[in-house]
DNA sequence: GTCTATATTTAGATAGAC
DNA sequence: GTCTATCTAAATATAGAC
């Protein structure tokens, strides 16, 4: 019903969810197909019925993240002003602080690992940050800032860098402190 | 001469340098001992004379980074004012933009990967960012800012996040733009 | 100290029964 | 569509000759 394949029920989705969680916790490379299958409660060999290679699972996880980001931004779009929309995004990150301290930003650490691959082109993971960056930029532009691209870069970088430090130190407060600071920074803009 | 072992010449250092470069380019997990040995022009089996495990090589690479950061900060300490010292650090990052766009920040991507490991404690890689953070904080305090810890976090996060985005997009200008912005931000502080 | 050959383990992937 | 059993390849690590 949801996609082209004639798949009956749940297993494919469970595998993607399992892979998503494990990749967040352990990283792409250390996560094995056996790990993924076990957590999804699917026999190992069966994985290959749904995905021809490990790369295909990773691609599905990236796509899942992309859809999730799109859904989040769509929800935020219902808010009245660009400022409240930006603050909603910030709030979202602050809420994720404990998970981020433990395993890093699910998007950031994934992109960090995928960017190292020999692929020439930016790849699908870049699209996630592209979507985020464009959206934030649009909010700043609506706030009347002509330097919207720079401001968007500053905000996203600030969050991603804090996520990395928070994870490195295993300390959620690093993330929350930085988000609070960025929140004030948004307020300070004309 | 340089360390406790009775090692005669070069090989250990070559292995660490090789590992450092490969880990930057490919990441920790994908880099094999065979890769490291080949690049260092040392036979594979011989690696185990210098390092008992792969983890030991990684630890040596982390330590190498730590020493390098300490040396950089020591050089910057010779500058006259805290502001010129901070700008020297920023300049250093801007110069690294091409390499960062290609393979990420050597420190950031390494910490990102190591933080995911099951280890409870922050580990040695956290010490690198600790040193950097403390140093930057000291500069801001010398500038008379009582919010020095927050400012230091903002600066380091801003750089690390930009490095991640720059690498994700494979675009050096993302890094240089952000550093320029942070440079202006430093100027704007009382 | 240096190196070759090899043991061990594990992960990705496939074949084919049901 | 589902699953078991297994092949193949590669990576870490060791034994032991020189």
Question: What is the topological layout?
Answer:
The structure is a homodimer of 190-residue chains.
Chain A: H1 11-26, H2 33-40, H3 47-50, H4 54-77, H5 82-95, H6 97-103, H7 106-115, H8 123-142, H9 148-169, H10 172-188
Helix pairs in contact in A: 1-2, 1-4, 4-5, 4-8, 5-8, 5-10, 6-9, 6-10, 7-8, 8-9, 9-10
The structure holds a DNA duplex (18 and 18 nucleotides).
Description:
- 2 copies of one chain form a homodimer.
- With 190 residues, chain A is mostly helical.
- Chain A folds into 2 domains: 1-52, Homeodomain-like (Arc Repressor Mutant, subunit A, Orthogonal Bundle); 62-189, Tetracycline Repressor, domain 2 (Orthogonal Bundle).
- Helices cover 75% and strands 0% of the residues of chain A.
- Mean pLDDT of chain A is 95; it is low at 1-6.
- Chain A binds chain B through residues 25-27, 29-30, 103-104, 108-109, 111-113, 115-116, 121-122, 125-126, 129-130, 133, 150, 153-154, 156-165, 167-170, 174, 177-178, 181, and chain B through 25-27, 29-30, 103-104, 108-109, 111-113, 115-116, 121-122, 125-126, 129-130, 133, 150, 153-154, 156-165, 167-170, 174, 177-178, 181.
- Chain A binds a DNA duplex (18 and 18 nucleotides) through residues 6-8, 11, 32-34, 42-46, 48-49, 52-54.
């Amino acid at each position: 019903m949801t996609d082209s394949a004639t798949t009956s029920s749940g297993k494919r989705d469970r595998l993607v969810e399992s892979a998503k969680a494990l990749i967040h916790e352990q990283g792409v490379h250390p996560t094995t197909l056996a790990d993924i299958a076990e957590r999804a409660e699917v026999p190992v060999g069966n994985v290959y019925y749904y995905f021809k290679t490990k790369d295909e699972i990773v691609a599905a996880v990236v796509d899942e993240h992309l859809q999730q980001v799109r859904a989040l931004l769509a929800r935020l779009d219902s808010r009245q002003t660009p400022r409240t929309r930006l603050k909603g995004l910030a709030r979202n990150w602050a809420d994720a602080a404990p998970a981020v301290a433990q395993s890093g930003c699910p998007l950031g650490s994934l992109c960090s690992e995928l960017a190292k691959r020999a692929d020439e082109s930016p790849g699908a993971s870049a699209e996630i940050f592209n979507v985020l960056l464009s959206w934030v930029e649009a909010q700043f532009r609506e706030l009347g800032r002509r330097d919207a691209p720079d401001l968007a870069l500053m905000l996203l970088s600030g969050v991603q860098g804090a996520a990395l430090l928070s994870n490195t130190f295993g300390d959620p407060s690093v993330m929350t402190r930085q988000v609070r600071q960025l929140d004030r920074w948004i307020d300070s803009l004309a």
